[in-house]
Every structure is written in C-alpha cells, then in structure tokens.
C-alpha cells in the first residue's frame, strides 16, 4: 500500500507492510533467524541495509569454534569462554551457545557448507589461541565467504522469506511499551517503508564502522544498539571492543585487516621498531600464542611507549615462514597482498589496532529476547555473550546460534501472543527523528553534517582504543560536547534531496549516541583500561550501561 508522504517537506512515497516477524539484518544471525521463521510457517520479512546476505559475516576469515573434536566437549569449550570473558559474561548465554553450535555445524553441512576435512574424513579443526582444544571449523581463511554462499543460496531458494534489501531501518515503532514494528528507507525504490510486525529481531551486527580505522563493511554502524536502547532495552558493556591488527604500511595495504590469527598460526612474529620480539617480554610463556586482546594491548603499549615503526605500527613479520605454510594457513591474505604488489614472504607488514568486533550489546535472554515486549536481538547486536573478551572464532559461532534461537522463539511468540496490528495507528516518523529532522532543516549554518560524523569517528579512534586513561576519556567527553554543541548543518541543495537527509537522520544520532554512551561507560569501569582480559576484568562489577546512563 502506498500512502502520501509525511516526511517533513520532502516528497517521498510511503509504503506499508504487515508481517509476523520483521528481521533487521542479513548476516549470519539475521539469516539463521529468517530460516527458522520460514520453517515455523509465520510471515517473515528480512530488511537489510546492504544486500540480502551482507555484513561482517561475508568477510569472516579463520573459522568459528565448535566442540567437534573427539577430545573435546561443549563443557570444555564453555570453560575456555568463561575463563577469558570475565565477569561481564552471562554464563547461561555461553552454556546454551556451546551446545547449540554443534548442531548448527551439522545443519550448515547439510545445506552444503564445505568445511575443510582431513584425509581420513574428519573435520580439520584449527587451533586458535586461548582454546584448550583444536576446534575452529573453517574454510581456510575465507570461512565467512563460504558460509555466506551457503546461506545466500538457501535464502534465495526460500520464497517464504520476503527479502527487502538496500533498506535501512531508522527506528522502531513502539506503542504502550511494546515494539510493534519499524520504519526505514528503501533506497532501491526511493521510498519510506513502515513495517508493522508482531515481533522484531535486531541483527544489525556491531558498530565498528563508527571507528575511523576498522575492517568492517560500511553498513555496520551500530544502528541496532541505538534502536534497541531508545525502545528501552538496557545496553551491556557497550564500550567493550575487540581490536584487531590492521595495516598502516605498506601504503598499498592501508586499512587492510590481514588476519593475525592466521599469521600467528603460520608462525609469524611481532616486532617493534628495534626488531625486538616484544611479546616474549610481556608474556614469556605464551608470547604470540597469548589471547588476541593481550597481543593487541601489548602492541598498543609498545606504540604508546614510542617503540612504533615510522608509520605508527608494529611489524607483523612472516618473512621466515615457509611458502607452503603460508599457502595452507592464509592463502587468501597472501593473494590479496600480492594482488596489491606486496609479497608477505618478503616484506613484513606494519599493523596497528583498529575496531574489529563489538563485545557488548542489547540485553537478551537465552532465546535472544530483550526485556521489551516484541523485541529480540541476536549476533553482534546482542550483549552479555562474550563478556569483556571474546576468544577467537566466537563471534560467528554465537551469531549463528543466537540468530537461530531468536528466530525460533520470535516465530513461536508471533503465533501465540498476537497484537491486532490493524488497530494500530502508526506514524511514519516517531517523535525522536521528527524533532531531529526539524532541527536540521531549520539550521542555516553550523558544521558540515558529514564532518560532524567523521569527527565522532576520529574521536573514537583516538580516545577509545585499547589503552584508556581517565584523563584522556575526560578530554574526549569535553571534545564530544564541543562537537555536539557545534550542531550539524546541511546545504540547501542536500536538504532538498530526500535520501541524504534520511541518511543523516539515521547515521548521525547513531554515531553520537554510541560515542557518548561508550565514553560514560568506559569512565565508570575501574580500571578504565580496555584490556578486556580476564586479569583486568576479574574484580569488575560489570556495571550496566543503562545504570551508567541513568547516573550520568
Ligand atoms: C575482517 C573480519 C574477519 C572476521 N573473522 C572472523 C572469524 O574468523 N571468526 C569469527 O568467529 N568471527 C569473525 N569475525 C566476526 C564475525 O564475522 C561477526 O561478528 C559476525 O559475522 C556478525 O554477524 P551478525 O549477523 O551479527 O552481523 P553482520 O554479519 O555484520 O550483519 C549485519 C547486517 O545488518 C544489516 N544492517 C545494519 N544496519 C542496518 C539497518 N539500520 N537496517 C537494516 N539492516 C541493517 C547489514 O546490512 C547486514 O546485513 C570477523 C570480522 C571481520 C570484520
């Protein structure tokens, strides 16, 4: 149904849809959820800002953890997760996940997933740092790409799932404290879309796109956190970020994430400017085999202490690794670098920390249900699953499991606890965006809107990295307040175009909301250091972000 526009002065059609379950996002979590809804026989729409299957799932590399080995068990897997996640983990969420993932591996294989197998037919389970057993199911260093192809093929073949791609959800529709749908922008057809739904599942991934240096696809900008929080869902550990080494040199590879776990597994070492293998100094027993967060923290400390390379990084050196090992462990990375003129067997890469995955998120129970009626969250959007540190191969694994669980439960609730959607009078634009937009339209001067967003990303990069100090966090808050006061401005030419304006309404509050929340949240931790390792986390009370916001 197409209705006249009510989007301010802009002439844009509005399209209405009703469904049982609306899934926002098309990565591992969103797509697994969609399959469950289709199987349960409820009407389901999957809206995705990117293509139908998109997000960080498509670029996942080394593999994901599941206790599939003969010497392994979900209980052992659970112990490893709890040991490293610290007190911010909800143990029940972790328990359910390690059992379910075994089933998910079988499902993926039955849908055509080609995990690498050994000559005797058993799964070739990779060893990942911090896991007590070899348990990474993988397809070399293109695991995400292989899984995406499988999910994508199955999704395309399933006519029961309505796919609304290149459609960004801007906000949830809430009535009497219950989520009853969402509204967004269909960029493909240039229309506003209003979805009325019995249940909504947020699977928008993490928020690494809000950092100046990150390795995520551009659509991943923390939207789900803002949507859920505005609807009343508490946020847990939102400032907990998993940093990863990203290239700062050679310039041909700037920003490229070279998959350090693969490099380490192949036998590469990290060196500082002086050529010292510094990890041995920090962690004499484990050196390169230390947890990812330990390696990143040590790297950040070396940079901080002035022992960085001339481009501000640390050498990741695979020049002594035999070619056949490189070919086996990181063939895709090797080819990508070679394609850009760099042979990693001859040239060490220079890397520095950038935002990779986010560990916190919306509060959920074991079915992905948030405390707000009608709303679920799964994948990187959900919190409490990884605590303060995720060990390698956990993000994809948890996204697959919790997407499936959320889809199953949302479908069941959509059948049982139905709301009469026809009686709801929804407005295309809730109050929050209406006020924001009116403000933007009214202003005829200020800082360029795109600069304001970029300043937030730079501030996050500079002040919310792996090393945090109270003094610099307070400086960052003051800087944020200055940016906030600056008030963003759009040229008349841009204001006259619907899509850039809507993009601003969607993107700017996200960046600004997260930055403010994360800064407050980081300041409330004691110590403020974002080390994320169990030693630092031990003793933390796990103060909740919602409490922090209330207190601030
Ligand atoms: C380079 C890289 C390598 C990685 N390697 C591994 C690995 O080897 N093992 C591992 O376990 N993990 C790995 N990860 C992490 C893992 O891939 C992700 O955490 C996981 O895939 C997240 O899945 P998801 O479904 O939650 O989100 P995503 O796959 O990010 O999907 C998010 C979806 O939400 C959509 N979306 C976003 N905002 C909106 C909106 N407003 N409206 C509508 N749609 C929206 C996007 O278009 C996308 O479809 C890696 C990550 C990166 C960046």
If you had to describe this structure to a student in words, what would you say it looks like?
By secondary structure, the protein is of the alpha/beta class. Among the domains are: 247-353, Flavocytochrome C3, Chain A, domain 1; 431-551, Methane Monooxygenase Hydroxylase, Chain G, domain 1 (Up-down Bundle), CATH 1.20.58.100. Helix content is 39%, strand content 17%. The protein is built from 18 helices and 18 strands. The strands form five sheets. Strands 1, 2, 3, 6, 7, 8, 9 and 16 form an eight-stranded mixed β-sheet that branches. Strands 11-14-13-12 form a four-stranded antiparallel β-sheet. A two-stranded antiparallel ribbon has the order 4-5. Helix 1 packs parallel to helix 4 (143-157) and helix 1 (28-40) packs parallel to helix 11. The protein is globular and about 65 Å long. Bound molecules: flavin-adenine dinucleotide. Residues 24-30, 47-50, 54-57, 59-64, 143-144, 168-169, 203-205, 215-216, 219-220, 223, 257, 356-357, 379-380, 393-397, 399 line the site of flavin-adenine dinucleotide.
Short account of what is shown:
This protein is an alpha/beta fold. The protein contains 18 helices and 18 strands. Among the domains are: 107 residues, Flavocytochrome C3, Chain A, domain 1 (Alpha-Beta Complex), CATH 3.90.700; 121 residues, Fumarate reductase/succinate dehydrogenase flavoprotein-like, C-terminal domain (Methane Monooxygenase Hydroxylase, Chain G, domain 1).
């Amino acid at each position: 149904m197409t209705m006249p526009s009510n989007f301010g002065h802009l002439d844009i059609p509005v399209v209405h849809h009703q469904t049982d379950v609306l899934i926002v996002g098309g990565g591992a979590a969103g797509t697994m959820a969609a399959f469950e809804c289709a199987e349960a026989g409820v009407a389901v729409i999957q809206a995705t800002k990117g293509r139908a299957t998109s997000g960080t799932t498509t670029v996942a590399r080394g593999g994901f953890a599941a206790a599939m080995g003969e010497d392994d068990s979900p209980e052992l897997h659970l112990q490893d997760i709890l040991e490293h996640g610290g007190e911010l983990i909800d143990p029940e969420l972790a328990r359910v996940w390690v059992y379910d993932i075994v089933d998910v591996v079988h499902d993926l294989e039955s849908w055509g997933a080609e995990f690498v197998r050994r000559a005797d037919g058993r799964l070739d389970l990779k060893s990942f740092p911090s896991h007590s057993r070899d348990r990474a199911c993988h397809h070399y260093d293109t695991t995400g790409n292989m899984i995406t192809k499988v999910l994508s093929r199955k999704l395309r073949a399933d006519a029961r799932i309505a796919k609304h791609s290149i459609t960004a959800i801007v906000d949830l529709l809430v009535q009497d404290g219950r989520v009853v749908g969402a509204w967004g922008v269909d960029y493909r057809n240039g229309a506003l879309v209003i979805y009325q739904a019995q249940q909504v599942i947020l699977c928008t991934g993490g928020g690494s796109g809000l950092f100046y240096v990150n390795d995520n696809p551009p659509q991943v900008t923390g939207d789900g956190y803002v949507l859920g929080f505005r609807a009343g869902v508490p946020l847990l550990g939102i400032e907990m970020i998993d940093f990863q080494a990203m290239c700062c040199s050679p310039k041909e590879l700037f920003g490229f994430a070279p998959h350090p776990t693969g490099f380490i597994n192949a036998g590469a070492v990290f060196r500082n400017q002086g050529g010292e293998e510094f990890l041995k100094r920090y962690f004499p027993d484990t050196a390169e085999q230390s947890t990812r967060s330990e390696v990143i923290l040590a790297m950040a400390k070396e940079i901080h202490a002035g022992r960085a390379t001339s481009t501000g990084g640390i050498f990741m050196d695979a020049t002594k690794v035999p070619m056949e090992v490189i070919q086996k462990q990181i063939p895709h990375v090797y080819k990508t670098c070679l394609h850009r003129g760099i042979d990693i067997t001859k040239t060490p890469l220079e890397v520095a920390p950038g935002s990779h995955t986010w560990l916190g998120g919306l509060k959920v129970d074991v079915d992905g249900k948030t405390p707000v009626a009608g709303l679920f969250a799964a994948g990187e959007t959900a919190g409490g699953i990884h605590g303060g540190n995720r060990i390698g191969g956990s993000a994809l694994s948890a996204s697959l499991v919790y997407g499936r669980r959320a889809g199953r439960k949302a479908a069941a609730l959509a059948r049982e606890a139905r709301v009469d959607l026809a009686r709801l009078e929804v407005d295309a634009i809730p109050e929050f965006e209406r006020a924001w937009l009116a403000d933007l339209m009214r202003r005829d001067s200020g800082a360029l809107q795109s600069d304001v967003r970029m300043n937030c990303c730079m501030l996050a990069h500079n002040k919310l990295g792996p090393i945090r100090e109270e003094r610099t966090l307070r400086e960052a808050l003051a800087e944020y307040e200055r940016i906030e006061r600056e008030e963003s401005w759009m040229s008349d030419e841009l204001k006259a175009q619907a899509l850039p304006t809507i993009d601003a309404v969607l993107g700017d509050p996200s960046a600004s909301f997260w930055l403010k929340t994360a800064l407050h949240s980081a300041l409330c931790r004691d110590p403020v250091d974002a080390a994320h390792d169990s030693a630092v986390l031990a003793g933390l009370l796990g103060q909740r972000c919602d409490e922090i916001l209330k207190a601030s």
